[in-house]
C-alpha cells in the first residue's frame, strides 16, 4: 500500500502550490532552537486555508485541499503547536486566543468523518478517501496524546467565554464557537481505525478506552454534564451535538458490565472463557471422530450410483464409515450459485452507524465511564432527552434522520444502565434513594410513547431496518423498565407502572405492529434478528402477565372503513381527479373498544412467517448465548404444546435442524444450560410428527400427502385439515335486516318521496335511483300494455257475458316483480334501509320474512298506474330540483327509526288476535260484553314496575313453589288448550286496564260537578255495604252469646283436637265473650238492618263458600296479622273483637259463613296501609293457585269494590259447614295482598297458577 503515501498526481499543481505557500506562512521551527515560531501573517494564512476548504473542496465536492493539507502535515506540525503556545497562565492574551480559535476552525473540518453518498460520490472521492481516513486516525492520535499540552482542554478554554454568556445575550459568533468546540469532541469520539486499511500505529492509542480516559483527564465529561443539565434552558441549541458525542462514546458498551465490581467482572470473564473452551472442545470432539490418523493415509475412492445411471465420486476413508457420512460428504461437495436478491437489499453499515458491535473497555476506562454515567443519569438525562424529544417533534433544522436513530438507541442504553445500577445496589445491599425512576421519567411519558410508535411504524413502512432496530431496542428496554417498576416495593412506582402498561397495551395498533415486524424479517442481519425476537419475547410475556392481572382489560381497535365503490354513470366518460381525491380523503378509521383476549392475540404470532423468523435465529445456535436459546425454546414450546400447532414444525429443514442441534454432528454441547429442555422438546416434536404420519383417517393417501406437505410451509387454509384430517365446518350466519325507517310527523305526504330521494342523493346513490327509475318505467309500460289488451278484449267479453257471466268479471292487473339483476343489487335491496323506505313509500311490497335476504320486491296489483307514474315523476323532479327545508335542516333529519316500543305493543296484540279467534266469546262470558271489544292499540299491557328498596328495608324472601314429583306430562292438545286459556285471561285482564303509557296530563283534568256526583255515589254505596255487613255481624254475635266459642277445623283429622281446645278455653273466656257481645251490640245498633238484608248477605257468603270449597288448595301455614308492635286501634267495633280473638301463627285459618266479607271490609277501612303495594308485610304467605269466584249478584260486586281482593281464599272457607252447626268467634286472618292491580285499578283474575 505504498502508493497511499505517495503525493497525488491528480491534484491541480496550482492548487497544491497555493496551499503549500499558505501552510509555510503559518509558521515553523526556529533555526536557533527547536521551538515553534508563529509566522507574522499566521492568522491571515489560517483564515485563507479555511476559505480554501470552504470554497474549493465543499463547493466543488472534492477532497483536493484536504489531501494537500494532510501531505503538508499541517495539523501535527502547525495547529497543535500553536494551541500549545497558549497556556492557562496567559488566558487573557487576545492574540493567542485569536490564533487558537483559528486553529480550531481548521481542526474541525479536517477531522470531520467522511461518509460517501452513492448519489454524490465521484472518482475524486474514491481516490483520496483512503489516504484521508488514515490521516484522520493520525490526527486523533496526535490530539489525544500530545506531549506538551492538553489540546482538548485548550479547546474548552476557547469556548468557555461564550458559554458563560446567557442564552438570550449570546451572539451568533458565540453560538458558533460553542458548536466548533463540541464538534471537535464529537470528531474525536467518532474517528476509528478503518477495517479495510492497514494500521499505522498502536490501535490502543485511539481506542474507546483511550478516548474515555482522555475525556476524563481533560475534564471533558464535566463540560458534557454541564451542557446536559442545561439542555432545556441555556444550551438548548447544543442538544443534538451532545447527543452525537454520547452516542459515539457509549455505543457497543455493555451497560451491565459497566456497573459490575472488579471481582464480578473477573468472574464474568472467567465464565465467558469457560464457555468458549467448551465450544472449542465440542468442536474438536466432532472433528476427532473422522480426523486423519496414521492408519488412514491410504487413498480411498468410491462411486455412488444415483438415478438415471448417474455416478458421484467420493474420496477419503471417512466416506465409507456409514451411509450418513457418505451422504453428508455428497452434500458438502455440492455447489449452489445462489441468485442475487432482487429489490431493496439490506442496508450496509459502517463503523460510525453500527451499534451492534460490542466494545470492551479497560478497567480504568470502565470506572471513568461508570462515574460519568451515574452523574449524567442524576443530573442531565431528563433535561437533555426532553429537549431532544421536543426538537424531533417540531422537526427542527438541527435534527437529522441519523439523530433520531441515536436518540432511540441512547434511550435503550441509559435505561439499561439505570437497571444495572439498581440491580448492583440491591446485590450489594446499598441503600437506594427514594425513587431513582424519577431520573429517567423523561422517556416514560405519553409523548415519548407516541413519538416512538409513530417512528416505529414509519421506519417499518419505509423498510429502514437500522432505524427500526433502534426503535425496537428502545421499546424493549422501556418494557423491561416498566416491569421493574411494577415489581418495586414502592406503591407509587407500582401505580405509575400500571398506568404505563395500560397506555402501551391499550392500543391494538401496537400489537399488530409487533406482529408485522416479526413476520417481515427476511435477511436484515443477525443484530436485527436478535433485536426483533427479543422485543417480541418481552412484549408477549408482559402482555400475558398484565392480562392475567387485569381480567377486564379493554383495547382500542381501529379498523379502516371499507371504501364504497362509486359507480355513478359519467356522461363525459372521464373521471374528475378532484372527486377521486375527495373519495380518498373520505376513507377514515373507525375506532371501537373491545375486551382483550390474550389467546386470540397470541395466535397472531403462530403463523408460518413468524416461525421462520425464530428458525432463522436458531440456525445460529452454535453462537447463541443461553438467554437467546431460552427465547427460542419458549416460543417453540408455546407453539407446539400450548397452542397445539406443532404441525408448523413438520418441515424437512426444520426437523433436520432440530435433530442436528441435539444429536449432531456439530450440535449443542451437553454441558450448556438448557440442553435438557431442548432435548425433551425435540423428542416430543418428533413423537408428534410420527403420530401425525400414522394417523387413521378415512380415505387413502394420508401418509403420502403428509410426506409431500413436509417439503413446504403450511398455509393457514390447510392447517386445520392437516391437524384433524377433515375440513373445518363454518356455519354462515344469517344476514341481519337493517333498522326500519319512518318519516317524522312533520313531513307531509307529498314531501315523503322528495325527502328520501334527497337523502339518497346526499349519500351519492344516484346509481340506485337510476335503477329505480328504469324499473318503474318498465312497470308502467307493462301495465299500460295490459290495460290496452284488456280494452281490446272488452267487446268480446261483453258478448260472452250473457252465456257465461263469470267471463265478464273485472280481473285485477298482474303483480310486477322488480328485477334485482346482480348480487350487489340484491344486497342493496336487503341492507339499504333508505332504498327500502323509498320503495315502501311509493307503494311497493316485499315478499318474504324480515330476515330473508332473497325476498323479492313487487309492484302490487292494487297500486294503480297513475300512482306509479306519480312516484316516478316525483323522483325525477327531486333530482333536478331538490327540496329546501326550513331552518337549514337536512333530509336525514326528516326520517327516524321506528319506535321499538310501539312495534312490540302492536305485534303483541296482532298475534293475540290471530292466535285466539274465540277469545272474545270466552272473555265475554266471564267479564261482560262491554269489557271485550276494547281497542287493543289504545291499551297495551302495562310495564312491570320494579319495587324500590328503601334504606333499612329488608328484601322479602322469595317463595319456593313446590311441584309434585308425580306430575304427569301434558299432551300437545292439553298444552295448546292451556296456552289458549292463558292468552284469553291475559287479554281479558289487559282489556280492563288503561295503560300508563297513554295517560297524559289531560287525564287529570275534570269538572267539579262530575266529581261531586261520583263521590256522592261512592259514599252512598259505601254506607249501604257497611250497613249490610254490620247487620250480618250483629246477628252472628247475638246467636253466639250463649254457645261455646270455637272454630271448625279445616282438616277432619284435627276436629276432635280442636273441640278439646275449645272446651279447655270455654270457662276462662265465658265472661270475656259476654262483654264482647255487649260491646258489639252497642257499636252495631245504629246501622242495624232488616232480616231480609241479613239473609241476602248469608246467601252471598254461602255461595262464595261453596265455590271456594271446589277449588281450595292444600292448607298453608298462616301468620297473624297483628304483631306485638302493631299500631292498629283495637278498641272499637269489629276490630276489637278480631284483635281479641286473633289466633297464633300456626293456627289454621277458619271463618264462618257470613263473616269473611265483613272482616275484609272492616280491615280495609280501618287499616288501609296493610293493602298498599309497598307494604312491609311479607306477601310470601298469600295463597297461590286459588281461582276467584265469578260475580253472582250486585251485593257481591259491591263487596268486591270495597275489598281490593279478587276473591276469598279457599283456605279461609274450607272450615264452613251447614248453618245449623255451632258458630264460633271470628278468627283473625291475614288479608290477601292486592296482587291483581294495574295502574290503580282492581283486576278480578291475576293468577296463572292453573297453567303452571
Automatic annotation (TrEMBL):
Q: Which domain of life is it from?
A: Eukaryota
Here the segments flagged for biased composition (Low complexity) are 1133-1158
Task: Please list the GO terms describing molecular function.
Answer: DNA binding
Q: Where is the composition biased (Acidic residues)?
A: 1090-1100, 1123-1132, 1171-1182
Where does it reside?
Nucleus
Q: Where is the Timeless N-terminal domain?
A: 35-304
Q: Provide the protein name.
A: Topoisomerase 1-associated factor 1
Q: Where is this region: Disordered?
A: 556-587, 908-1009, 1033-1231
InterPro entries according to UniProt: Timeless, Timeless_N
Q: Name one GO cellular component term.
A: replication fork protection complex
**What segments bear the compositional bias annotation Basic residues?**
556-566, 1073-1083
What's in the keyword line of the UniProt record?
A: Cell cycle, DNA replication inhibitor, Meiosis, Nucleus
**Has UniProt tagged this entry with the keyword Transmembrane?**
no
Q: Which family does it belong to?
A: Belongs to the timeless family.
Q: Which GO terms describe its biological process?
A: DNA repair; DNA replication checkpoint signaling; meiotic cell cycle; replication fork arrest
Biased composition, class Basic and acidic residues, residue ranges: 944-956, 966-980
Amino acid at each position: 500500500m505504498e502508493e497511499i503515501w505517495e503525493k497525488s498526481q491528480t491534484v491541480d499543481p496550482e492548487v497544491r502550490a497555493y496551499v503549500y505557500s499558505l501552510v509555510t506562512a503559518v509558521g515553523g521551527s526556529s533555526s536557533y532552537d527547536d521551538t515553534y515560531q508563529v509566522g507574522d501573517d499566521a492568522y491571515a494564512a489560517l483564515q485563507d486555508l479555511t476559505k480554501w476548504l470552504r470554497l474549493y473542496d465543499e463547493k466543488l465536492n472534492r477532497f483536493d485541499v484536504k489531501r494537500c493539507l494532510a501531505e503538508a502535515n499541517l495539523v501535527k506540525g502547525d495547529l497543535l503547536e500553536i494551541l500549545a503556545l497558549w497556556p492557562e497562565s496567559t488566558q487573557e492574551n487576545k492574540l493567542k486566543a485569536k490564533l487558537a480559535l483559528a486553529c480550531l476552525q481548521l481542526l474541525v473540518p479536517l477531522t470531520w468523518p467522511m461518509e460517501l453518498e452513492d448519489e454524490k460520490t465521484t472518482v475524486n472521492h474514491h481516490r483520496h478517501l483512503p489516504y484521508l481516513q488514515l490521516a484522520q486516525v493520525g490526527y486523533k492520535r496526535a490530539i489525544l496524546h500530545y506531549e506538551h499540552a492538553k489540546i482538548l482542554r485548550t479547546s474548552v478554554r476557547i469556548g468557555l467565554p461564550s458559554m458563560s454568556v446567557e442564552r438570550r445575550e449570546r451572539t451568533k459568533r458565540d453560538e458558533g464557537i460553542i458548536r466548533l468546540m463540541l464538534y471537535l469532541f464529537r470528531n474525536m469520539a467518532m474517528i476509528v481505525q478503518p477495517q479495510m486499511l492497514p494500521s499505522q500505529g498502536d490501535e490502543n492509542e485511539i481506542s474507546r478506552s483511550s478516548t474515555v480516559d482522555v475525556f476524563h483527564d481533560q475534564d471533558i465529561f464535566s463540560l458534557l454534564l454541564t451542557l446536559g443539565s442545561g439542555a432545556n434552558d441555556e444550551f438548548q441549541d447544543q442538544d443534538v451535538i451532545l447527543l452525537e458525542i454520547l452516542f459515539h462514546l457509549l455505543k457497543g458498551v455493555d451497560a451491565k458490565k459497566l456497573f459490575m465490581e472488579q471481582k464480578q467482572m473477573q468472574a464474568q470473564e472467567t465464565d465467558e472463557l469457560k464457555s468458549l473452551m467448551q465450544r472449542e472442545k465440542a468442536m474438536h470432539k466432532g472433528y476427532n471422530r473422522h480426523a486423519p490418523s496414521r492408519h488412514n493415509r491410504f487413498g480411498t475412492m468410491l462411486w455412488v450410483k444415483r438415478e438415471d445411471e448417474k455416478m458421484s465420486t467420493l474420496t477419503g476413508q471417512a466416506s465409507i464409515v456409514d451411509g450418513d457420512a457418505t451422504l453428508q460428504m455428497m452434500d458438502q461437495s455440492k455447489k449452489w450459485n445462489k441468485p442475487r436478491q432482487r429489490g431493496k437489499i439490506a442496508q450496509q453499515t459502517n463503523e460510525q452507524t453500527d451499534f451492534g458491535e460490542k466494545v470492551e473497555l479497560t478497567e480504568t476506562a470502565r470506572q471513568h465511564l461508570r462515574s460519568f454515567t451515574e452523574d449524567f443519569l442524576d443530573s442531565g438525562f431528563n433535561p437533555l432527552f426532553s429537549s431532544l424529544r421536543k426538537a424531533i417533534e417540531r422537526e427542527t433544522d438541527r435534527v437529522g434522520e441519523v439523530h433520531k436513530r441515536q436518540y432511540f438507541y441512547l434511550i435503550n442504553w441509559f435505561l439499561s444502565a439505570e437497571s444495572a445500577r439498581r440491580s448492583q445496589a440491591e446485590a450489594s445491599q446499598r441503600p437506594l434513594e427514594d425513587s431513582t425512576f424519577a431520573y429517567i421519567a423523561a422517556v416514560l411519558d405519553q409523548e415519548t410513547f407516541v413519538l416512538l410508535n409513530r417512528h416505529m411504524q414509519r421506519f417499518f413502512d419505509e423498510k429502514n431496518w437500522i432505524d427500526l432496530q433502534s426503535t425496537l431496542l428502545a421499546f424493549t428496554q422501556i418494557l423491561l423498565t416498566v416491569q421493574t417498576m411494577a415489581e418495586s416495593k414502592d406503591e407509587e412506582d407500582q401505580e405509575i407502572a400500571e398506568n404505563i402498561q395500560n397506555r402501551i397495551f391499550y392500543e391494538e395498533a401496537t400489537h399488530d405492529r409487533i406482529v408485522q415486524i416479526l413476520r417481515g424479517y427476511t435477511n436484515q442481519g443477525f443484530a436485527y434478528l436478535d433485536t426483533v425476537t427479543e422485543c417480541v419475547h418481552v412484549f408477549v410475556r408482559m402482555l400475558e402477565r398484565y392480562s392475567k392481572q387485569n381480567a377486564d382489560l379493554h383495547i382500542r381497535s381501529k379498523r379502516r372503513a371499507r371504501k364504497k365503490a362509486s359507480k355513478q354513470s359519467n356522461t363525459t366518460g372521464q373521471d374528475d381527479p378532484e372527486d377521486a381525491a375527495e373519495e380518498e380523503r373520505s376513507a377514515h378509521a373507525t375506532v371501537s373498544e373491545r375486551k382483550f383476549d390474550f389467546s386470540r392475540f397470541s395466535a397472531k404470532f403462530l403463523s408460518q412467517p413468524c416461525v421462520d423468523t425464530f428458525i432463522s435465529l436458531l440456525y445460529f445456535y452454535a453462537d447463541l448465548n443461553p438467554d437467546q436459546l431460552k427465547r427460542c425454546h419458549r416460543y417453540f414450546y408455546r407453539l407446539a404444546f400450548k397452542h397445539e400447532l406443532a404441525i408448523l414444525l413438520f418441515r424437512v429443514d426444520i426437523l433436520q435442524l432440530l435433530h442436528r442441534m441435539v444429536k449432531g454432528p456439530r450440535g449443542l454441547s451437553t454441558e450448556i444450560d438448557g440442553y435438557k429442555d431442548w432435548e425433551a422438546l425435540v423428542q416430543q416434536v418428533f413423537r408428534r410428527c410420527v403420530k401425525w404420519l400414522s394417523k387413521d383417517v378415512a380415505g387413502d393417501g394420508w401418509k403420502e400427502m403428509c410426506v409431500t406437505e413436509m417439503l413446504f410451509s403450511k398455509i393457514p387454509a390447510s392447517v386445520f385439515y392437516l391437524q384433524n384430517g377433515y375440513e373445518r365446518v363454518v356455519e354462515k350466519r344469517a344476514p341481519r335486516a337493517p333498522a326500519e325507517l319512518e318519516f317524522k310527523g312533520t313531513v307531509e305526504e307529498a314531501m315523503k318521496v322528495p325527502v328520501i330521494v334527497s337523502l339518497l342523493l346526499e349519500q351519492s346513490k344516484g346509481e340506485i335511483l337510476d335503477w329505480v327509475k328504469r324499473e318503474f318505467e318498465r312497470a308502467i309500460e307493462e301495465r299500460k300494455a295490459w290495460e290496452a289488451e284488456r280494452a281490446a278484449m272488452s267487446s268480446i267479453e261483453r258478448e260472452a257475458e250473457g252465456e257465461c257471466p263469470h267471463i265478464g268479471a273485472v280481473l285485477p292487473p298482474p303483480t310486477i316483480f322488480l328485477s334485482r339483476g346482480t348480487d350487489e343489487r340484491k344486497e342493496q335491496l336487503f341492507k339499504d334501509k333508505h332504498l327500502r323506505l323509498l320503495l315502501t313509500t311509493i307503494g311497493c311490497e316485499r315478499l318474504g320474512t324480515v330476515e330473508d335476504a332473497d325476498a323479492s320486491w313487487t309492484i302490487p296489483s292494487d297500486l294503480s298506474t297513475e300512482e306509479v307514474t306519480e312516484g316516478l315523476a316525483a323522483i325525477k323532479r327531486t333530482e333536478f330540483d331538490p327540496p329546501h327545508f326550513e331552518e337549514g335542516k337536512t333530509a336525514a333529519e326528516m326520517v327516524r327509526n321506528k319506535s321499538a316500543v310501539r312495534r312490540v305493543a302492536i305485534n303483541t296484540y296482532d298475534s293475540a288476535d290471530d292466535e285466539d279467534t274465540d277469545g272474545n266469546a270466552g272473555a265475554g262470558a266471564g267479564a261482560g260484553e262491554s269489557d271485550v271489544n276494547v281497542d287493543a292499540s289504545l291499551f297495551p299491557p302495562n310495564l312491570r314496575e320494579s319495587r324500590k328498596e328503601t334504606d333499612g328495608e329488608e328484601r322479602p324472601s322469595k317463595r319456593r313453589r313446590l311441584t309434585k314429583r308425580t306430575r304427569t306430562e301434558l299432551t300437545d292438545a292439553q298444552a295448546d288448550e292451556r296456552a289458549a286459556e292463558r292468552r284469553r285471561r291475559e287479554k281479558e285482564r289487559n282489556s280492563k286496564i288503561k295503560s300508563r303509557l297513554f295517560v297524559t296530563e289531560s287525564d287529570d283534568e275534570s269538572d267539579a260537578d262530575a266529581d261531586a256526583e261520583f263521590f256522592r255515589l261512592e259514599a252512598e254505596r259505601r254506607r249501604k255495604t257497611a250497613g249490610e255487613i254490620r247487620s250480618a255481624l250483629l246477628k252472628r254475635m247475638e246467636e253466639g252469646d250463649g254457645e261455646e266459642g270455637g272454630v271448625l277445623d279445616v282438616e277432619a283429622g284435627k276436629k276432635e283436637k280442636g273441640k278439646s281446645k275449645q272446651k279447655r278455653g270455654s270457662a276462662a273466656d265465658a265472661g270475656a265473650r259476654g262483654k264482647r257481645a255487649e260491646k258489639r251490640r252497642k257499636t252495631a245498633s245504629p246501622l242495624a238492618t232488616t232480616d231480609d238484608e241479613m239473609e241476602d248477605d248469608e246467601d252471598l257468603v254461602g255461595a262464595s263458600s261453596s265455590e271456594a270449597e271446589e277449588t281450595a288448595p292444600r292448607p298453608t301455614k298462616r301468620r297473624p296479622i297483628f304483631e306485638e308492635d302493631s299500631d292498629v286501634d283495637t278498641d272499637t267495633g269489629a276490630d276489637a273483637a278480631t284483635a281479641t280473638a286473633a289466633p297464633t301463627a300456626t293456627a289454621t285459618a277458619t271463618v264462618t259463613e257470613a263473616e269473611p266479607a265483613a272482616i275484609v271490609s272492616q280491615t280495609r277501612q280501618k287499616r288501609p296501609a296493610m293493602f298498599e303495594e309497598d307494604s312491609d308485610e311479607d306477601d310470601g304467605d298469600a295463597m297461590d293457585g286459588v281461582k276467584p269466584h265469578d260475580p253472582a249478584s250486585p251485593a257481591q260486586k259491591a263487596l268486591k269494590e270495597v275489598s281490593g281482593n279478587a276473591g276469598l281464599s279457599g283456605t279461609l272457607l274450607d272450615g264452613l259447614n251447614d248453618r245449623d252447626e255451632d258458630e264460633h268467634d271470628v278468627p283473625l286472618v291475614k288479608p290477601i295482598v292486592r296482587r291483581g292491580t294495574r295502574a290503580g285499578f282492581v283486576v278480578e283474575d291475576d293468577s296463572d297458577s292453573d297453567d303452571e
